[in-house]
């Protein structure tokens, strides 16, 4: 740490920091005045050097005037490089802008919180309140300060605007790249290689469709035709099969290598980590620029490899990366972690908006599933950000219909009251599937983390991709992209539809007549067998795929499996209605309408909602997303029923969604704000059950030397230390953070000023100047969160969840400090109780 003496200035050229804080007068071409700054730690001193220096020359005279705040406010309001945390006056909860000159503002990158730590919500919110107060009071001084205040008030809207535009552009690029690479696996459009199979055949005059509704034309050439293999032979099938596997494995391998090499945080869905970070946890680099770039490229490659994963969840991570990057341009958010989370919440809403084309559902997703604190102001900005992002995708993406057309059925379908029974069955199946998937996926992830398999993530990706492609190609329904399969499953069967899925005996004059006009033929049952096979294989592959080291979401796979199940149930109900037309429920409902009584495509929509709800336990946001996707408000009741039943069944079997389960698996310090905790224990019980029963380190108000302080900082590396009146009387004076104490000691070292390790450290409020002492009173947080030993545990948990308390001090009946609890201690206690 600091040495007892420093070399004389004549022997060594002082650095820029020493020259800035030197007490000797230094002349320059522009000014001959002394360059010093006013102390923010002890108001009785005239300069920062008074804290660090113990002897002054006899001819020293303090300055009579302080520097102005003009440059300071401009830097703080506009310059994202200004780190205002080092100027924090803990006695006021934030920076004293009125008495802090511009020279005291240092420029350091990033936040003042350490990696893998939790933020102090109360302190950051207090800092922002005083910051806003200062700028508001000074806006009448000049036109420039009025502009600064206007910029500060508008910065939140500007930030979310940039986030929405950027994530919309990224989503359009990802859509274009994913569609093109997905079609590369099956062939090439020779007139224009950059077109997909569907686009290639748009202008062709000889379009044909096979029994699975795949379009074919002369412009599109499969890999077998490129190698001049005779069509309709075994050789053609083998060549296309090999090309499908080789290209898919190649895409997956490149994706895994990019993630492994450049951005390890780009793997997975990202939603569990986003939830943890929004709750107040710090993970450095998780929202970085490299993570955004590699995750965007990885989404294109992973989805093109036909792996059982989606890009909807990773879009939430990408949009949060955009929010973090653009927040740096506005120090109101970039230098305040609590305020930054407002931008991240709005960004998460934009991620779901571009993924599904559902801006309202995205806002509700951020509110229900991701955000920890969601104020009304954040709601408005989230709505604006989601709207802008969805608009940009609609303008830029030529495949915009993939979002709006994924489940779009309009108001074509009509449901009847007796169909609530199969809808409830689909909800139960969705809850069962969600519980099964969560259990098995967590078991596999634990095996990956505890065995040698976790050491070879690229090899695991290659093996999963190889097995997936080998199994998927023989089945036409698994060979096609999942988004295409969903559109096939939710579509209704028209009279001129000759696909196997719509192989019905129909009456030409009346397509929806009940007696023998919709009798399922052999093609329907063949499709049923293929769908059962797809459901079985895709479920197993989904369990092993989610969690591999590539960008992988679970929205589209869950929707696909639910749509398959829903279509199967719909066909069975339709068949039952056909063969039992006189059943009393069918007689009452079906005879009163000229429309088709049972539509299997609508069952696919309800099944998709039920399965996704069973996996994620989403309710309100899920229903709104599905209503926006289908385009029919009349479907809200069946969708609500399926989502609610699936959540109830899933909670009864597992108790948590997939995101919360992965948060626990990774041991993130997340305290669920929506969970109910019933316990009769008190702070005394919580202290006794602490996992880390470390020694309680208390700093006395007076009597501590610099050497003692350095020893404590080196030996006991805590985030902060309570300050008490004396060792004999442990009444609480305040709480001081470790980073502030280290900052003072570091400034002593950088300034090359003679140090005395016996210098007294004082946290006293007295303003009497002492030459051989350091007064740190203004570093104190004089209103720390304090409870007694009899405080109920539920109250302590609410202090952390609702007030965002990071550290809680515990006193006895005499008001003396007897213990200390951190947010991590409380999270560990809650986990311990749940395991019991």
UniProtKB/TrEMBL annotation:
GO MF assignments: voltage-gated chloride channel activity
Keywords associated with the record: CBS domain, Chloride, Ion transport, Membrane, Transmembrane, Transmembrane helix, Transport
Keyword Ion transport: yes
Every CBS domain range: 691-751, 780-836
InterPro entries: CBS_dom, CBS_dom_sf, Cl-channel_core, ClC
UniProt-annotated location(s): Endosome membrane; Membrane
Transmembrane segments: 153-174, 241-260, 281-302, 343-367, 379-396, 416-438, 458-478, 524-548, 554-579, 600-627, 633-654
Main subcellular localisation: membrane
Region entry Disordered, spans: 1-37
Biased composition (Low complexity): 18-35
Alphabetical list of SMART domains matching this protein: CBS
Record keyword Hydrolase present: no
GO annotation, cellular component aspect: early endosome; endosome membrane; Golgi apparatus; plasma membrane; synaptic vesicle
Pfam families: CBS (PF00571), Voltage_CLC (PF00654)
Topological category with respect to the lipid bilayer: Multi-pass membrane protein
Family from the record: Belongs to the chloride channel (TC 2.A.49) family.
Protein name: Chloride channel protein
Species name: Rotaria socialis
Lineage: Eukaryota, Metazoa, Spiralia, Gnathifera, Rotifera
């Amino acid at each position: 740490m600091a040495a007892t003496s420093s070399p004389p200035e004549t022997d060594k050229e002082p650095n820029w920091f020493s020259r800035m804080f030197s007490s000797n007068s230094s002349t320059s071409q522009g000014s001959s005045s002394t360059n010093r700054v006013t102390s923010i730690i002890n108001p009785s001193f005239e300069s920062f050097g008074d804290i660090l220096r113990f002897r002054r020359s006899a001819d020293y005279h303090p300055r009579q005037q302080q520097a102005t705040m003009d440059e300071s406010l401009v830097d703080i309001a506009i310059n994202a490089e200004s780190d205002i945390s080092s100027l924090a006056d803990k006695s006021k909860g934030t920076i004293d802008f009125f008495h802090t000159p511009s020279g005291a503002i240092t420029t350091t990158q990033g936040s003042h919180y350490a990696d893998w730590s939790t933020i102090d919500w109360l302190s950051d919110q207090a800092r922002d309140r005083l910051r806003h107060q200062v700028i508001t009071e000074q806006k009448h001084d000049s036109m420039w300060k009025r502009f600064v205040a206007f910029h500060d008030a508008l910065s939140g809207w500007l930030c979310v605007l940039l986030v929405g535009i950027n994530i919309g552009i990224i989503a359009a690029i990802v859509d274009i790249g994913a569609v093109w690479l997905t079609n590369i696996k099956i062939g090439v459009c020779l007139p224009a290689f950059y077109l997909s199979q569907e686009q290639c055949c748009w202008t062709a005059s000889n379009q044909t469709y096979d029994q699975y509704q795949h379009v074919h034309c002369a412009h599109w050439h499969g890999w077998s035709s490129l190698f001049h293999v005779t069509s309709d032979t075994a050789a053609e099938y083998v060549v296309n099969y090999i090309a499908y596997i080789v290209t898919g494995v190649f895409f997956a391998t490149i994706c895994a290598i990019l993630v492994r090499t450049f951005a390890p945080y780009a793997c997975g869905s990202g939603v569990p980590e986003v939830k943890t970070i929004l709750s107040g946890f710090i993970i450095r680099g998780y929202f970085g620029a490299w993570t955004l770039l590699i995750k965007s490229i990885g989404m294109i490659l992973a989805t093109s490899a036909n792996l059982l994963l989606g890009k909807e969840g990773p879009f939430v991570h990408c949009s949060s990366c955009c929010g973090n990057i653009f927040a740096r341009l506005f120090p109101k958010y970039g230098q305040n972690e609590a305020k930054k989370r407002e931008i991240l919440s709005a960004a998460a809403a934009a991620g779901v908006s571009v993924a599904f084309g559902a801006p309202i559902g995205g806002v509700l997703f951020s509110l229900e599933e991701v955000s920890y604190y969601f104020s009304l102001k954040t709601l408005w900005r989230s709505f604006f950000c989601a709207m802008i992002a969805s608009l940009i995708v609609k303008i830029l993406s030529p495949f915009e219909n993939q979002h709006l057309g994924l489940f779009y059925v309009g108001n074509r379908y009509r449901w009847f009251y007796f169909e609530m029974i199969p809808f409830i069955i689909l909800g139960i199946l969705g809850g069962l599937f969600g519980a099964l998937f969560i259990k098995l996926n967590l078991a596999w992830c634990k095996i990956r983390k505890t065995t040698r398999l976790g050491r070879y993530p690229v090899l695991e990706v290659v093996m999963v991709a190889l097995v997936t492609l080998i199994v998927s190609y023989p089945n036409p329904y698994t060979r096609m992209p999942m988004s295409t399969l969903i559109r096939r499953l939710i579509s209704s069967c028209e009279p001129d539809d000759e696909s196997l899925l719509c192989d019905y005996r129909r009456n030409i004059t009346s397509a929806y007549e009940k007696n023998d006009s919709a009798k399922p033929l052999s093609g329907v049952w063949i499709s049923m067998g293929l769908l059962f096979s797809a459901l079985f294989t895709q479920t197993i592959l989904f369990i092993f795929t989610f969690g591999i080291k590539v960008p992988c979401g679970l929205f589209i796979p869950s929707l696909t499996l639910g749509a398959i199940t829903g279509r199967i149930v719909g066909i069975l109900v339709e068949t039952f209605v056909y063969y039992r037309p006189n059943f009393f429920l069918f007689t009452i409902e079906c005879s009163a309408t000229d429309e088709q009584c049972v539509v299997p495509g609508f069952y696919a929509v309800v099944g998709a909602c039920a399965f996704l709800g069973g996996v994620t336990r989403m309710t309100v946001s899920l229903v709104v997303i599905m209503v926006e996707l289908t385009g029919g408000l009349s479907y809200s009741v069946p969708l609500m029923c399926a989502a609610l039943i699936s959540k109830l069944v899933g909670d009864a079997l597992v108790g948590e969604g997939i995101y919360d389960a992965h948060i626990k698996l990774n041991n993130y310090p997340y305290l669920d704000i929506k969970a109910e905790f019933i316990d009769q224990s008190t702070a005394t019980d919580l202290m006794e059950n602490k996992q880390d029963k470390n020694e309680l380190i208390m700093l006395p108000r007076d009597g501590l030397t610099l050497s003692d302080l350095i020893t404590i900082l080196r030996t006991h590396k805590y985030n902060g230390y309570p300050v008490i009146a004396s060792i004999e009387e442990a009444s609480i004076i305040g709480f001081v953070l470790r980073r502030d104490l280290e900052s003072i000691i570091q400034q002593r070292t950088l300034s090359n000023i003679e140090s005395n390790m016996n210098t007294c450290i004082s946290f006293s409020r007295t303003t009497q100047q002492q030459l051989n002492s350091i007064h740190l009173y203004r570093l104190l947080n004089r209103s720390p969160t304090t409870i007694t030993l009899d405080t109920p545990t539920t109250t302590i948990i609410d202090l952390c969840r609702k007030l965002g308390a990071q550290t809680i001090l515990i006193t006895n009946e005499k008001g003396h400090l007897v213990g200390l609890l951190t947010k991590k201690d409380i999270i560990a206690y809650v986990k311990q109780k749940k395991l019991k």
